[in-house]
Description:
A: 6-stranded mixed β-sheet, globular, B: 7-stranded mixed β-sheet
Amino acid sequence: GQNIDQPTEMTATEGAIVQINCTYQTSGFNGLFWYQQHAGEAPTFLSYNVLDGLEEKGRFSSFLSRSKGYSYLLLKELQMKDSASYLCAVSGAAGNKLTFGGGTRVLVKP
Amino acid sequence: DVKVTQSSRYLVKRTGEKVFLECVQDMDHENMFWYRQDPGLGLRLIYFSYDVKMKEKGDIPEGYSVSREKKERFSLILESASTNQTSMYLCASIRDQGYTFGSGTRLTVV
Lengths: 110, 110
């Protein structure tokens, strides 16, 4: 089976850094994804990790450790528009279907 | 950019009605997916399809069926709508290694 855990909610201040952790236990592994979802909208793709290490993309970075079943999404220089839910998802052995965690709601305060 | 279009943004249906949710993608992708999203439960996979006339059950297929007569169109069918099927329904297609989601259909069953 698949099990993906991430915190439910986090609060941070504008300009700060926030790290969202994701742990997973899956029967196979083909990659880990992070999505951003604003309230009432569809999720949008942020990052994809298939090998261990850090992937940096502007203010957002994502890290993966396959041996530990662990990933994090790092949001730097937080802006008010970063207030959203962040979804961790794993692609298992069976094709391209993704299993999602419950999402982490990030609230950025002035 | 890949476009995934869901025909309705909001729907209200009565208990027992047969409901069709339509999804169309414009990039000739083979893989398409239907998820539902509920607070506290995240996104859960209902059905997916790897090709025309192909369908596979996801994690929560009960009460649903799908149709994939053409590559670009993947329909989700609620055979007899029930109040516990009130939810946000999201269709997705593969883009590179990640999904592109449609804008979602918020279905209310009364």
